[in-house]
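Field: COMPLEX_INPUT
Field: COMPONENT_COUNT = two
Field: RESIDUE_TOTAL = 338
Field: MODE = joint
Values follow.
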Amino acid sequence: MIFGAEFPPLSHIVNWPEMVGDDTWGINKVVLVYLFAVVLTVLFFVLGSRKKELVPTGAQNLAEMAVEFVEDGIVMDTMGPEGRKFTPLLLTFFFFIFFCNIFEIIPIIQMPATARIALPLALSLIAYVTYHGFGMKEHGVLGYFKHALVPPGVPPALLILIVPIEFISKFLVQPFSHAVRLFANLLAGHILLVTFAVLTSSVWALKPTAVIVPLPAFAVVAFTAFELMVSFLQAYVFTLLAGVYINAAISHEH
Amino acid sequence: MSLSVLAQEAAAEGITNTGLAALTYGIGALGPGIGIGYLVGQSVQAMARQPEAAGMVRTTMFLGIAFVEALALIGFVVFFLAQA
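Field: COMPLEX_OUTPUT
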């Protein structure tokens, strides 16, 4: 307790009571945010492609810019032209994650759905199945394990050391770190906003210190702007890494 | 003023697991902090020297940041695990 500020325990800021149903199959605020994000993602592209005109306006213009950003900025940079077929997957990743993240700073809701590990883990497992699946399709099952685990130009004596390290990093740690990167960033941002909001309200309630209330209040505003950037950047980074992993799995050159 | 309050709190409760976890995370954030600083500094230099390569440098920079940052974020998760 500092300044009479009682910081709520972590379970208070990320656990939400079920509105409908029980513990296992209920719907709470986080699930509602998932559903919202799904609806927004679908709506964005349905509206964007409803009537296709040669000179795009409005929603179509926005959707085309979005597709171009993902295709030129992520797909072409990481995989080159042969990665074009993964554009729909990465586009969905980017917008679904972005819409889940952006609810962090939307008033009243203010809960990023990606601050619970379930969603990032599920998304990273989709990416995991995709890159290993396409890698095995490209190289054959045994060929893929050789491609993934044995780096070229390594002396045979070192292989006994390299192969287990590559196996752990590519098959066990990679999906975990892919998910944790998104999850921890959004959880940290959420806690940051909660901290300054709690500080503002408790400083306001404690009369003699109320003169410094502009400081934490300004911090809330500034960090909200910062979190807008973070939610965009984390969606970009997750998608970019999915592209890099797919490229590492399907590429032939070494 | 807040420092003295903090000191009183620590004296009253003894050093807690939470305090240790927070301190350890602080130490753990040093490495990634240095890493990201160096990485972005070098990228800015590269972009200033060769502005036409800025797009490629930026993509690679974000990729590097993501890998370095993962260490700090794993520390952040471990911080919550260690608190319990």
